[in-house]
Design goal:
InterPro entries: 3-OHacyl-CoA_DH_NAD-bd, 3HC_DH_C, 6-PGluconate_DH-like_C_sf, 6PGD_dom2, NAD(P)-bd_dom_sf. This protein is an alpha/beta fold. It has 22 helices and 18 strands.
C-alpha cells in the first residue's frame, strides 16, 4: 500500500466534493471528479474556475499555476473513471445505502492497492468497510467546510483499517497544508462529536423559549469568542444534516444530550433546513443566500420593555478582579462609582488595580491621560457598604457562594435607598434565592458580566419571576450606556453561555477518559474545525478546574440529566489540587512564575 497518491478520484461534486477536488488539484494531484449529475459536474468546474481566478486576483497563485491546476481536474459521470486512482474519496449523501453502493461498485473497478476513503461525519466507517471486499484499505477522511480554507482533517481508522493506509492519507493531508488528527470510529468523531451536542442544546434552549435566537447566538459569539452563533451555524450546516448526525450519535451513546431536539425534526419535516432552503432558524434573502432578512420573529428596532429608573451613581461591592473591572467599566461610561470592600485597605488596592489598568490603556494609545484621570476621579473607594446609601444601582461581585451573597444582599437591603436597583453578577446561582434575602425582591436582577469586564462586551440580564419590569428596562438601558451587549434570559443554572459551554467542556474530558483522542488532538480539532479561539483543555485550565467543576455540579443538580454529571477525571484533578494555570498544573503543566 506504499503509494504516492498522485491520482485521486472524488465521488460526489457538491460543495464539499468540489472543495476537496480544488485542494487536491492545486497541490499537484491529478483529480477525477465523479458525479452522476451533469449539472453538478459543470458546477464544480465553474466553481473551481471562479475560485482560482479570485486567487490569482489576490496574488495567492500565478496565472500559470491556475492553468496547471485546472488542467489537472477532469470530471466524469461513472465510477469507471476511478480505475486508475490510488485514492478515492467519496462525499455522497449521508446514507448507508448510497455509500455502500458506491463502495461495492468501486471494489469492481479499482485495483487492490487503492485506498477508499469516506467523507462521512455521521456514519460508521467500520460498517462501511465491512461491505468492502478489502476492508483493510477503507478509512475515513473527514474534511471541514469550506475545504480550501479549513485546516483540519480527521483521519478515521476502524478496527479493520491497515496502518499503511492511515499513514499514506495522513502524509497526504500534511502535503495539502492540512492538520491531520487521528481518531477512532465513532459518530461525529472529535470535532462534530463535541460540536453537535452543543448545537443540539442550543436548539433545545430556543425551543423552550428560554431566550431568543438572536440572544442565544449573540451570547455565544460575545461570551466565547465564537465566529458564529449555534443557531446560525445550524442553518449553515443544514438542519436536516445536523439531525442525521445527532441521530447517529444518540444511537451509539444513548446520551440524552445527543437526542435531537424536536424542533430539528419539525423544521426538517417542513423543509426549513437552513440557508440552502432560504429559511431555518432565520430567514434568508433567497435559497442558498447568506443575508438574514427580517421575519415575524425579528425584534423591532429600538423596542425596549418600557421606561426604566434613573441611574446616575453606581455601587460595586467586592475587591477582586471582576469587581474592579466592573467599576472601571461604569466609571469610563461617566457614572459616579463607589467601590466598596470589606476593609478600606482592600478597597484602595482594588482602585489601584483600576489605575494600573487605565495606565495600560494610555500606554497602548486606547485612552488619553485626561480621560484616565477623569475616570479615576469618578471612583470612590470605601471600606463599608454604608457608602451605598445614595447609589441608584448596586452591583455585587463577591465570592460565588449563595450564603455569602445572601448576607450581602440582606445588608444592601438595609443600606440602599428605596427604588435602588440591586444586581448580582452570579454565573451559576439562582438569582431569586439571592433576591429573597431582601424585602424587595422586585428590585433584584442578575447582571452577569464576563471576565475581563472592560474587554468583554456581553452582559447576561437575568430576570426572576419577581423582577419588576422597570428594573429590567433600567438594566437594559444601563448596558447600552456602558457599551455592553445585553442578552435576556431566565433565572436557571448556567443562564445561556455556561449552560451551553460547560457540557461541551465536560464531553471533551470524557473523550480523554475513554482514550478516544489526546488533549492536543481535541484542542486542535476544535480550534481548526470549530473555529474556537481556544481548545477545551486550554480553556478549562484558564477558567480553573475547580470553577469548572462547581458549574458542572450546579448544572447537573438543576437539570438532573445523567449526561451532565461531571466527568470523574475532572473531579480527580480538583481533588489532587491540579486546578489549572493558577496552580501550575491542570490538564497540562505550566511553568511557575
Amino acid at each position: 500500500m506504499d503509494t504516492p497518491l498522485s491520482t485521486i478520484a472524488v465521488v460526489g461534486l457538491g460543495t464539499m466534493g468540489t472543495g476537496i477536488a480544488e485542494v487536491l488539484a492545486l497541490a499537484g494531484r491529478e483529480v477525477i471528479g465523479i458525479d452522476i449529475s451533469e449539472a453538478a459536474a459543470l458546477g464544480a468546474v465553474a466553481s473551481f474556475e471562479a475560485s482560482t481566478a479570485r486567487a490569482v486576483g489576490r496574488g495567492r497563485i500565478t496565472e500559470e499555476e491556475r492553468a496547471a491546476a485546472l488542467a489537472r481536474f477532469r470530471t466524469a459521470d461513472t465510477l469507471q473513471a476511478a480505475a486508475d486512482a490510488e485514492l478515492v474519496i467519496e462525499v455522497v449523501p449521508e446514507s448507508y445505502e448510497i455509500k455502500q453502493q458506491v463502495f461495492r461498485e468501486l471494489d469492481a473497478v479499482v485495483p487492490p492497492t487503492t485506498i477508499l476513503a469516506t467523507g462521512t461525519n455521521a456514519l460508521s466507517v467500520t460498517r462501511l468497510a465491512a461491505e468492502s471486499q478489502r476492508p483493510e484499505r477503507v478509512l475515513g477522511l473527514h474534511f471541514f467546510n469550506p475545504a480550501p480554507a479549513m485546516k483540519l482533517v480527521e483521519v478515521v481508522s476502524s478496527v479493520l483499517t491497515a496502518p499503511p493506509a492511515v499513514e499514506a492519507v495522513t502524509a497526504l493531508a500534511r502535503e495539502l497544508g492540512k492538520e491531520p488528527v487521528a481518531v477512532g470510529d465513532r459518530p461525529g468523531f472529535v470535532a462534530d462529536g463535541l460540536l453537535f451536542g452543543y448545537l443540539n442544546q442550543a436548539a433545545a434552549m430556543y425551543e423552550a423559549n428560554y431566550a431568543s435566537r438572536e440572544d442565544i447566538d449573540a451570547a455565544m459569539k460575545l461570551g466565547c469568542g465564537l465566529p458564529m452563533g449555534p443557531l446560525a451555524l445550524l442553518d449553515l450546516i443544514g438542519i436536516d444534516t445536523a439531525r442525521t448526525v445527532l441521530e447517529a450519535m444518540y444511537a451509539e451513546s444513548h446520551d440524552r444530550l445527543h437526542a435531537p431536539a424536536p424542533i430539528l425534526g419539525q423544521l426538517s419535516s417542513a423543509g426549513l433546513t437552513g440557508r440552502k432552503a432560504g429559511r431555518g432558524f432565520y430567514t434568508y434573502d433567497a435559497p442558498g443566500g447568506q443575508d438574514v432578512v427580517p421575519d415575524a420573529l425579528t425584534p423591532a428596532a429600538g423596542a425596549e420593555a418600557g421606561a426604566g429608573r434613573a441611574v446616575a451613581s453606581v455601587g460595586v461591592a467586592g475587591s477582586g478582579t471582576m469587581a474592579s473591572g466592573i467599576a472601571e467599566v461604569f466609571a469610563k461610561a461617566g457614572y459616579g462609582v463607589v467601590l466598596a470592600a470589606r476593609t478600606q485597605e482592600k478597597a484602595d488596592l482594588a482602585k489601584g488595580r483600576i489605575a494600573k489598568s487605565l495606565e495600560r490603556s494610555v500606554s497602548k494609545g486606547r485612552l488619553s491621560a485626561e480621560a484616565r484621570d477623569e475616570t479615576l476621579a469618578r471612583i470612590t473607594a470605601a471600606g463599608s457598604l454604608d457608602a451605598f446609601a445614595e447609589v441608584d444601582l448596586a452591583v455585587e461581585a463577591v465570592a460565588e457562594d449563595l450564603e455569602i451573597k445572601q448576607q450581602l444582599f440582606a445588608a444592601l437591603d438595609k443600606v440602599c435607598r428605596p427604588g435602588a436597583v440591586l444586581a448580582t453578577t452570579t454565573s451559576s446561582l439562582p438569582v431569586v434565592a439571592i433576591a429573597r434575602a431582601t424585602a424587595r425582591p422586585e428590585d433584584v436582577i442578575g447582571m452577569h458580566f464576563f471576565n475581563p469586564a472592560p474587554a468583554m462586551k456581553l452582559v447576561e440580564v437575568v430576570r426572576t419571576v419577581l423582577t419588576a419590569d422597570d428594573v429590567h428596562a433600567t438594566v437594559r438601558a444601563v448596558c447600552a450606556k456602558i457599551r455592553k451587549h445585553p442578552v435576556d434570559c431566565g433565572d436557571r443554572a448556567g443562564f445561556i453561555v455556561n449552560a451551553l459551554l460547560f457540557p461541551y467542556l465536560n464531553n471533551a474530558i470524557k473523550m480523554v477518559e475513554q482514550h478516544y483522542a489526546s488533549l492536543d488532538d481535541i484542542d486542535a480539532a476544535m480550534k481548526l474545525g470549530g473555529g474556537y479561539p481556544m481548545g477545551p483543555f486550554e480553556l478549562l485550565d484558564v477558567v480553573g478546574l475547580d470553577v469548572s467543576l462547581a458549574i458542572e455540579k450546579v448544572l447537573h443538580k438543576e437539570f438532573r440529566d445523567p449526561g451532565l454529571a461531571p466527568a470523574p477525571l475532572l473531579e480527580h484533578l480538583v481533588a489532587a489540587g491540579c486546578l489549572g494555570r493558577k496552580t501550575g498544573r491542570g490538564f497540562r503543566e505550566y511553568a511557575r512564575r
